[in-house]
Amino acid sequence: MYISFADRGGSPRRRGAGATRVSSVVVTLGVVSLLTDISSESVAAILPLYLTTVIGLSPIAYGVIDGLYQGVSAIVRIFGGWAADRTERPKWVAVFGYGISALARIGFLLATGFSAIVAIVTVDRLGKGLRTAPRDAMITAASVPENLGRSFGVHRMLDTVGAAVGPLLAFLILLVLPTGFTTVFVLSLGCALLGLVVLGLLVPGRTGAAVPPAVGTTPVRPAFSWRALADPGLRRVLVVAGLCGLFTVGDGFVYLALQARTDFAATWFPLLYVGTNVVFLALAIPLGRLADRWGRARVFVAGHAALVAAYLCAAVPIGTLLPTLVCLVLLGVFYAATDGVLAALAAQFAPAGSTATGLAGAQTVVALARFLASTVFGVLWYSVGSTVALLGFAAALLLMLPVAAFLLRTRSSPGHR
Protein backbone atom coordinates (compact mmCIF):
# COMPACT_ATOMS: atom_id res chain seq x y z
CA MET A 1 0.00 0.00 0.00
CA TYR A 2 2.99 2.32 0.30
CA ILE A 3 5.29 3.32 -2.52
CA SER A 4 8.37 5.39 -3.06
CA PHE A 5 8.92 7.37 -6.20
CA ALA A 6 12.14 5.37 -6.45
CA ASP A 7 11.16 1.85 -5.35
CA ARG A 8 8.49 -0.37 -3.85
CA GLY A 9 8.41 -2.69 -0.91
CA GLY A 10 9.30 -2.58 2.76
CA SER A 11 7.23 -1.90 5.83
CA PRO A 12 5.91 1.62 6.04
CA ARG A 13 5.49 1.44 9.79
CA ARG A 14 9.20 1.03 10.52
CA ARG A 15 10.98 4.13 11.72
CA GLY A 16 12.63 5.75 8.72
CA ALA A 17 10.52 4.01 6.06
CA GLY A 18 7.69 6.54 6.32
CA ALA A 19 10.17 9.34 5.69
CA THR A 20 10.70 8.22 2.10
CA ARG A 21 7.43 6.53 1.16
CA VAL A 22 3.85 7.60 0.72
CA SER A 23 0.88 5.31 0.30
CA SER A 24 -0.17 4.29 -3.20
CA VAL A 25 -3.68 5.27 -2.09
CA VAL A 26 -2.45 8.83 -1.55
CA VAL A 27 -0.87 8.88 -5.02
CA THR A 28 -3.99 7.48 -6.70
CA LEU A 29 -6.22 9.96 -4.92
CA GLY A 30 -3.77 12.62 -6.08
CA VAL A 31 -4.31 11.52 -9.68
CA VAL A 32 -8.09 11.71 -9.17
CA SER A 33 -7.69 15.22 -7.82
CA LEU A 34 -5.35 16.09 -10.69
CA LEU A 35 -7.98 15.18 -13.27
CA THR A 36 -10.76 16.84 -11.28
CA ASP A 37 -8.74 20.01 -10.88
CA ILE A 38 -8.07 20.18 -14.62
CA SER A 39 -11.85 20.09 -14.90
CA SER A 40 -12.66 22.65 -12.22
CA GLU A 41 -9.73 25.03 -12.65
CA SER A 42 -10.08 25.29 -16.42
CA VAL A 43 -13.55 26.69 -15.72
CA ALA A 44 -12.47 28.76 -12.71
CA ALA A 45 -9.73 30.39 -14.80
CA ILE A 46 -12.21 31.80 -17.31
CA LEU A 47 -15.20 32.31 -15.01
CA PRO A 48 -14.32 35.85 -13.79
CA LEU A 49 -13.93 37.10 -17.37
CA TYR A 50 -16.86 35.06 -18.65
CA LEU A 51 -19.19 36.44 -16.01
CA THR A 52 -18.03 40.07 -16.16
CA THR A 53 -17.44 40.47 -19.91
CA VAL A 54 -19.62 37.89 -21.69
CA ILE A 55 -22.60 37.82 -19.34
CA GLY A 56 -21.93 41.36 -18.07
CA LEU A 57 -22.26 40.90 -14.31
CA SER A 58 -21.26 43.62 -11.84
CA PRO A 59 -18.54 43.14 -9.18
CA ILE A 60 -21.28 42.62 -6.57
CA ALA A 61 -22.92 39.85 -8.63
CA TYR A 62 -19.53 38.25 -9.25
CA GLY A 63 -18.84 38.51 -5.52
CA VAL A 64 -22.02 36.56 -4.80
CA ILE A 65 -21.07 33.83 -7.26
CA ASP A 66 -17.48 33.70 -6.03
CA GLY A 67 -18.80 33.50 -2.48
CA LEU A 68 -21.00 30.57 -3.49
CA TYR A 69 -18.00 28.98 -5.20
CA GLN A 70 -16.02 29.34 -1.98
CA GLY A 71 -18.68 28.63 0.61
CA VAL A 72 -21.80 26.78 -0.51
CA SER A 73 -20.07 23.43 0.01
CA ALA A 74 -20.26 24.17 3.75
CA ILE A 75 -23.89 23.04 3.66
CA VAL A 76 -22.92 19.39 3.22
CA ARG A 77 -19.28 19.10 4.36
CA ILE A 78 -20.16 17.95 7.88
CA PHE A 79 -22.67 15.47 6.46
CA GLY A 80 -20.08 14.11 4.01
CA GLY A 81 -17.57 13.61 6.81
CA TRP A 82 -20.11 12.00 9.13
CA ALA A 83 -21.39 9.70 6.35
CA ALA A 84 -17.83 8.53 5.68
CA ASP A 85 -17.28 7.77 9.39
CA ARG A 86 -20.72 6.20 9.80
CA THR A 87 -20.55 3.86 6.82
CA GLU A 88 -16.78 3.24 7.03
CA ARG A 89 -16.90 3.53 3.23
CA PRO A 90 -15.41 6.97 2.55
CA LYS A 91 -14.64 6.01 -1.03
CA TRP A 92 -18.28 5.72 -2.02
CA VAL A 93 -19.25 8.96 -0.31
CA ALA A 94 -16.45 10.58 -2.30
CA VAL A 95 -17.64 8.90 -5.53
CA PHE A 96 -21.09 10.39 -5.01
CA GLY A 97 -19.61 13.85 -4.51
CA TYR A 98 -17.36 13.63 -7.55
CA GLY A 99 -20.31 12.37 -9.59
CA ILE A 100 -22.51 15.35 -8.67
CA SER A 101 -19.76 17.75 -9.70
CA ALA A 102 -19.31 15.93 -13.00
CA LEU A 103 -23.02 16.29 -13.76
CA ALA A 104 -22.80 20.01 -13.02
CA ARG A 105 -20.26 20.37 -15.83
CA ILE A 106 -23.05 19.62 -18.29
CA GLY A 107 -24.93 22.64 -16.97
CA PHE A 108 -22.10 25.00 -17.92
CA LEU A 109 -22.75 24.06 -21.56
CA LEU A 110 -26.34 25.29 -21.28
CA ALA A 111 -26.31 28.21 -18.83
CA THR A 112 -26.52 31.76 -20.15
CA GLY A 113 -27.76 33.88 -17.24
CA PHE A 114 -27.02 34.77 -13.63
CA SER A 115 -29.65 32.45 -12.10
CA ALA A 116 -28.52 29.44 -14.12
CA ILE A 117 -24.86 30.05 -13.26
CA VAL A 118 -25.76 30.34 -9.57
CA ALA A 119 -27.63 27.00 -9.70
CA ILE A 120 -24.77 25.22 -11.49
CA VAL A 121 -22.08 26.59 -9.20
CA THR A 122 -24.19 25.56 -6.21
CA VAL A 123 -24.56 21.95 -7.43
CA ASP A 124 -20.86 21.73 -8.33
CA ARG A 125 -19.74 23.01 -4.93
CA LEU A 126 -22.18 20.73 -3.09
CA GLY A 127 -20.41 17.85 -4.78
CA LYS A 128 -17.08 19.22 -3.62
CA GLY A 129 -18.42 19.52 -0.10
CA LEU A 130 -19.46 15.87 -0.03
CA ARG A 131 -16.21 14.49 -1.40
CA THR A 132 -13.44 16.47 0.29
CA ALA A 133 -13.58 15.17 3.88
CA PRO A 134 -13.95 11.48 2.85
CA ARG A 135 -11.00 11.88 0.47
CA ASP A 136 -8.83 13.47 3.15
CA ALA A 137 -9.92 10.79 5.62
CA MET A 138 -8.66 8.14 3.17
CA ILE A 139 -5.35 9.99 2.95
CA THR A 140 -5.12 10.10 6.75
CA ALA A 141 -5.97 6.40 7.15
CA ALA A 142 -3.36 5.39 4.58
CA SER A 143 -0.55 7.53 6.02
CA VAL A 144 2.06 7.24 8.74
CA PRO A 145 0.95 9.72 11.45
CA GLU A 146 4.29 11.45 11.88
CA ASN A 147 4.47 12.13 8.14
CA LEU A 148 0.88 13.25 7.67
CA GLY A 149 1.97 16.68 6.47
CA ARG A 150 4.15 15.08 3.80
CA SER A 151 1.31 12.81 2.65
CA PHE A 152 -1.03 15.75 2.27
CA GLY A 153 1.79 17.63 0.56
CA VAL A 154 2.17 14.84 -2.03
CA HIS A 155 -1.57 14.80 -2.63
CA ARG A 156 -1.75 18.57 -2.91
CA MET A 157 1.22 18.55 -5.29
CA LEU A 158 -0.59 16.20 -7.68
CA ASP A 159 -3.81 18.13 -7.16
CA THR A 160 -1.97 21.31 -8.08
CA VAL A 161 -0.56 19.80 -11.27
CA GLY A 162 -4.16 19.67 -12.42
CA ALA A 163 -4.79 23.15 -11.06
CA ALA A 164 -1.93 24.42 -13.23
CA VAL A 165 -2.73 22.37 -16.33
CA GLY A 166 -6.44 23.33 -16.33
CA PRO A 167 -5.89 27.10 -16.70
CA LEU A 168 -3.07 26.46 -19.19
CA LEU A 169 -5.39 24.42 -21.39
CA ALA A 170 -8.06 27.12 -21.06
CA PHE A 171 -5.48 29.71 -22.15
CA LEU A 172 -4.47 27.66 -25.19
CA ILE A 173 -8.11 27.16 -26.17
CA LEU A 174 -8.87 30.88 -25.91
CA LEU A 175 -5.66 31.71 -27.75
CA VAL A 176 -6.81 29.65 -30.73
CA LEU A 177 -10.54 30.36 -30.26
CA PRO A 178 -10.99 33.75 -28.52
CA THR A 179 -14.65 32.95 -27.91
CA GLY A 180 -14.11 29.27 -27.16
CA PHE A 181 -15.69 29.21 -23.71
CA THR A 182 -17.91 26.28 -24.71
CA THR A 183 -14.85 24.27 -25.72
CA VAL A 184 -13.40 24.82 -22.25
CA PHE A 185 -16.64 23.57 -20.71
CA VAL A 186 -16.50 20.39 -22.85
CA LEU A 187 -12.90 19.77 -21.76
CA SER A 188 -13.97 20.25 -18.16
CA LEU A 189 -16.73 17.63 -18.46
CA GLY A 190 -14.40 15.04 -20.03
CA CYS A 191 -11.75 15.38 -17.31
CA ALA A 192 -14.35 15.21 -14.53
CA LEU A 193 -15.71 11.93 -15.90
CA LEU A 194 -12.21 10.46 -16.28
CA GLY A 195 -11.35 11.31 -12.66
CA LEU A 196 -14.55 9.63 -11.51
CA VAL A 197 -13.60 6.45 -13.39
CA VAL A 198 -10.11 6.37 -11.83
CA LEU A 199 -11.57 6.77 -8.34
CA GLY A 200 -14.16 4.06 -8.85
CA LEU A 201 -11.78 1.50 -10.36
CA LEU A 202 -8.39 2.07 -8.71
CA VAL A 203 -8.98 3.29 -5.15
CA PRO A 204 -9.78 0.52 -2.63
CA GLY A 205 -12.99 0.70 -0.62
CA ARG A 206 -11.08 0.63 2.67
CA THR A 207 -7.69 2.06 3.55
CA GLY A 208 -5.43 1.50 6.51
CA ALA A 209 -5.50 -1.33 9.01
CA ALA A 210 -8.89 -1.85 10.57
CA VAL A 211 -8.97 -2.64 14.30
CA PRO A 212 -11.26 -5.62 14.88
CA PRO A 213 -13.92 -5.37 17.62
CA ALA A 214 -13.51 -7.34 20.81
CA VAL A 215 -14.91 -10.85 20.79
CA GLY A 216 -18.62 -10.91 21.54
CA THR A 217 -19.16 -7.21 20.84
CA THR A 218 -20.92 -5.42 18.03
CA PRO A 219 -19.03 -2.74 16.11
CA VAL A 220 -20.32 0.71 17.05
CA ARG A 221 -20.86 3.11 14.21
CA PRO A 222 -20.63 6.77 15.19
CA ALA A 223 -23.91 8.65 15.44
CA PHE A 224 -23.59 12.28 14.49
CA SER A 225 -22.76 14.48 17.46
CA TRP A 226 -21.19 17.90 17.73
CA ARG A 227 -19.03 16.29 20.44
CA ALA A 228 -16.94 14.90 17.58
CA LEU A 229 -15.69 18.48 17.20
CA ALA A 230 -15.23 19.07 20.93
CA ASP A 231 -11.52 18.33 21.30
CA PRO A 232 -9.93 21.56 22.66
CA GLY A 233 -7.11 21.40 20.13
CA LEU A 234 -9.54 20.86 17.25
CA ARG A 235 -11.70 23.75 18.47
CA ARG A 236 -8.68 26.06 18.38
CA VAL A 237 -7.91 24.92 14.84
CA LEU A 238 -11.51 25.61 13.78
CA VAL A 239 -11.51 29.08 15.36
CA VAL A 240 -8.22 30.05 13.71
CA ALA A 241 -9.31 28.67 10.33
CA GLY A 242 -12.52 30.68 10.54
CA LEU A 243 -10.88 33.93 11.64
CA CYS A 244 -8.28 33.77 8.88
CA GLY A 245 -10.87 32.69 6.32
CA LEU A 246 -12.90 35.82 6.98
CA PHE A 247 -10.17 37.81 5.27
CA THR A 248 -9.30 35.37 2.47
CA VAL A 249 -10.93 36.38 -0.81
CA GLY A 250 -11.12 34.31 -3.97
CA ASP A 251 -8.16 34.45 -6.33
CA GLY A 252 -10.43 35.77 -9.08
CA PHE A 253 -10.72 39.13 -7.31
CA VAL A 254 -6.96 39.43 -6.94
CA TYR A 255 -6.44 38.54 -10.59
CA LEU A 256 -9.10 41.01 -11.75
CA ALA A 257 -7.29 43.72 -9.76
CA LEU A 258 -3.98 42.77 -11.40
CA GLN A 259 -5.57 42.70 -14.85
CA ALA A 260 -7.19 46.11 -14.37
CA ARG A 261 -3.91 47.65 -13.22
CA THR A 262 -1.66 46.29 -15.96
CA ASP A 263 -4.36 46.18 -18.66
CA PHE A 264 -3.01 43.02 -20.31
CA ALA A 265 -5.11 41.22 -22.90
CA ALA A 266 -7.97 39.13 -21.53
CA THR A 267 -6.60 36.11 -23.42
CA TRP A 268 -3.72 35.94 -20.95
CA PHE A 269 -5.95 35.96 -17.87
CA PRO A 270 -5.90 32.16 -17.28
CA LEU A 271 -2.08 32.25 -17.02
CA LEU A 272 -2.41 34.05 -13.69
CA TYR A 273 -3.90 30.85 -12.26
CA VAL A 274 -1.09 28.85 -13.85
CA GLY A 275 1.56 31.01 -12.19
CA THR A 276 0.06 30.61 -8.73
CA ASN A 277 -0.43 26.88 -9.12
CA VAL A 278 3.09 26.26 -10.42
CA VAL A 279 4.45 27.81 -7.21
CA PHE A 280 1.96 25.77 -5.16
CA LEU A 281 3.09 22.66 -7.03
CA ALA A 282 6.76 23.34 -6.34
CA LEU A 283 6.30 24.05 -2.62
CA ALA A 284 3.51 21.69 -1.51
CA ILE A 285 5.80 18.81 -0.50
CA PRO A 286 8.68 20.91 0.94
CA LEU A 287 6.29 22.96 3.08
CA GLY A 288 4.41 19.83 4.13
CA ARG A 289 7.68 18.31 5.34
CA LEU A 290 8.63 21.59 7.01
CA ALA A 291 5.30 21.59 8.82
CA ASP A 292 5.95 18.08 10.16
CA ARG A 293 9.38 19.10 11.45
CA TRP A 294 9.14 22.78 12.39
CA GLY A 295 5.48 22.93 13.39
CA ARG A 296 2.22 22.83 11.44
CA ALA A 297 0.79 25.84 13.28
CA ARG A 298 3.85 27.95 12.50
CA VAL A 299 3.76 27.12 8.81
CA PHE A 300 0.01 27.77 8.68
CA VAL A 301 0.38 31.25 10.21
CA ALA A 302 3.39 32.04 7.99
CA GLY A 303 1.30 31.11 4.94
CA HIS A 304 -1.28 33.75 5.86
CA ALA A 305 1.51 36.30 6.22
CA ALA A 306 2.35 35.55 2.58
CA LEU A 307 -1.30 36.21 1.69
CA VAL A 308 -1.09 39.65 3.34
CA ALA A 309 1.92 40.43 1.18
CA ALA A 310 0.05 39.21 -1.92
CA TYR A 311 -2.83 41.61 -1.21
CA LEU A 312 -0.34 44.48 -0.90
CA CYS A 313 1.28 43.57 -4.22
CA ALA A 314 -2.10 43.50 -5.94
CA ALA A 315 -2.98 46.89 -4.46
CA VAL A 316 0.28 48.63 -5.45
CA PRO A 317 -0.55 51.14 -8.23
CA ILE A 318 2.41 50.15 -10.39
CA GLY A 319 1.55 48.93 -13.88
CA THR A 320 4.60 46.71 -14.36
CA LEU A 321 5.08 42.97 -14.57
CA LEU A 322 7.19 42.58 -11.40
CA PRO A 323 4.46 43.18 -8.77
CA THR A 324 2.20 40.78 -10.67
CA LEU A 325 4.82 38.01 -10.64
CA VAL A 326 5.59 38.58 -6.96
CA CYS A 327 1.87 38.44 -6.18
CA LEU A 328 1.48 35.09 -7.96
CA VAL A 329 4.46 33.66 -6.07
CA LEU A 330 3.07 34.82 -2.73
CA LEU A 331 -0.36 33.32 -3.48
CA GLY A 332 1.33 30.01 -4.32
CA VAL A 333 3.26 30.11 -1.04
CA PHE A 334 0.01 30.81 0.82
CA TYR A 335 -1.74 27.75 -0.61
CA ALA A 336 1.26 25.46 -0.17
CA ALA A 337 1.61 26.50 3.48
CA THR A 338 -2.06 26.28 4.44
CA ASP A 339 -4.14 23.88 2.35
CA GLY A 340 -2.66 20.50 3.25
CA VAL A 341 -1.30 21.80 6.57
CA LEU A 342 -4.79 22.71 7.80
CA ALA A 343 -6.00 19.22 6.89
CA ALA A 344 -3.08 17.69 8.81
CA LEU A 345 -3.86 19.85 11.86
CA ALA A 346 -7.55 18.93 11.82
CA ALA A 347 -6.84 15.22 11.33
CA GLN A 348 -4.35 15.29 14.19
CA PHE A 349 -6.92 16.51 16.71
CA ALA A 350 -10.00 14.67 15.42
CA PRO A 351 -11.38 12.06 17.90
CA ALA A 352 -10.82 8.39 17.11
CA GLY A 353 -13.41 7.14 14.63
CA SER A 354 -14.35 10.69 13.60
CA THR A 355 -11.45 11.72 11.39
CA ALA A 356 -13.63 12.63 8.42
CA THR A 357 -16.01 14.60 10.66
CA GLY A 358 -13.11 16.58 12.11
CA LEU A 359 -11.74 17.30 8.66
CA ALA A 360 -15.20 18.31 7.47
CA GLY A 361 -15.53 20.66 10.43
CA ALA A 362 -12.39 22.54 9.44
CA GLN A 363 -13.45 22.64 5.79
CA THR A 364 -16.92 23.87 6.72
CA VAL A 365 -15.58 26.72 8.81
CA VAL A 366 -13.21 27.80 6.04
CA ALA A 367 -15.91 27.57 3.37
CA LEU A 368 -18.39 29.67 5.36
CA ALA A 369 -15.75 32.25 6.24
CA ARG A 370 -14.61 32.58 2.63
CA PHE A 371 -18.19 32.89 1.44
CA LEU A 372 -18.62 35.89 3.72
CA ALA A 373 -15.22 37.27 2.71
CA SER A 374 -15.94 37.17 -1.02
CA THR A 375 -19.41 38.67 -0.60
CA VAL A 376 -18.15 41.54 1.56
CA PHE A 377 -15.15 42.11 -0.70
CA GLY A 378 -17.41 42.38 -3.75
CA VAL A 379 -19.46 45.07 -2.01
CA LEU A 380 -16.31 46.94 -0.95
CA TRP A 381 -14.88 46.75 -4.47
CA TYR A 382 -18.07 48.25 -5.85
CA SER A 383 -18.22 50.93 -3.14
CA VAL A 384 -14.63 52.09 -2.64
CA GLY A 385 -12.61 50.38 -5.36
CA SER A 386 -10.28 47.38 -5.46
CA THR A 387 -7.23 49.13 -3.99
CA VAL A 388 -8.92 50.25 -0.78
CA ALA A 389 -10.67 46.89 -0.42
CA LEU A 390 -7.40 44.98 -0.77
CA LEU A 391 -5.59 47.24 1.69
CA GLY A 392 -8.41 46.87 4.19
CA PHE A 393 -8.38 43.08 4.00
CA ALA A 394 -4.56 43.04 4.24
CA ALA A 395 -4.65 45.15 7.42
CA ALA A 396 -7.36 43.02 9.02
CA LEU A 397 -5.58 39.75 8.21
CA LEU A 398 -2.27 41.14 9.49
CA LEU A 399 -3.92 41.96 12.82
CA MET A 400 -5.33 38.44 12.93
CA LEU A 401 -1.93 36.68 12.64
CA PRO A 402 -0.75 37.12 16.26
CA VAL A 403 -4.19 36.00 17.44
CA ALA A 404 -3.87 32.86 15.31
CA ALA A 405 -0.35 32.17 16.57
CA PHE A 406 -1.53 32.55 20.19
CA LEU A 407 -4.50 30.22 19.76
CA LEU A 408 -2.42 27.54 18.05
CA ARG A 409 0.45 27.69 20.55
CA THR A 410 1.50 24.29 21.90
CA ARG A 411 3.85 22.77 24.42
CA SER A 412 4.21 19.60 22.38
CA SER A 413 6.94 18.80 19.94
CA PRO A 414 6.68 21.02 16.87
CA GLY A 415 6.31 18.12 14.47
CA HIS A 416 2.95 17.32 16.02
CA ARG A 417 1.53 20.75 15.53
The assigned structural class equals: mainly alpha
Q: Shape from CA axes?
A: globular
What's the Cα radius of gyration?
21 Å
The tally of beta strands, per DSSP, is 2
- The second-level CATH architecture is Up-down Bundle
Taking the sheet with the most strands, its summary is: 2 strands, antiparallel
**What order do the helices and strands follow?**
EEHHHHHHHHHHHHHH
CATH level 1 class label: Mainly Alpha
List the total number of helices.
14
CATH superfamily: MFS general substrate transporter like domains
Low-confidence stretches: 1-19, 209-220, 411-417
Whole-number mean pLDDT: 81
Amino-to-carboxy terminus distance: 26 Å
Share of residues in helices: over 70%
CATH fold naming: Growth Hormone, Chain: A
Strand order of the largest sheet: 1-2
The share of residues in extended strands comes to: under 5%
Number of spatially distinct domains = 1
List keywords for this structure.
417 residues, mainly alpha, Growth Hormone, Chain: A, 14 helices, 1% strand, globular, disordered N terminus, transmembrane helix, transmembrane transporter activity, MFS_trans_sf
Quick overview of this protein structure:
The protein has 14 helices and 2 strands. The chain has 417 residues and is mostly helical. Pfam families: MFS_1.
Write the layout of secondary structure elements.
Blueprint: E1 2-3, E2 22-23, H1 24-54, H2 59-71, H3 74-87, H4 90-108, H5 114-141, H6 148-176, H7 181-202, H8 232-245, H9 251-262, H10 270-294, H11 296-315, H12 321-349, H13 355-384, H14 386-407
Antiparallel strand pairs: 1-2
Helix pairs in contact: 1-5, 1-6, 1-7, 1-10, 2-5, 2-13, 3-4, 3-5, 3-13, 4-5, 4-7, 5-13, 6-7, 6-10, 6-12, 8-12, 8-13, 8-14, 10-11, 10-12, 11-12, 11-14, 12-13, 13-14
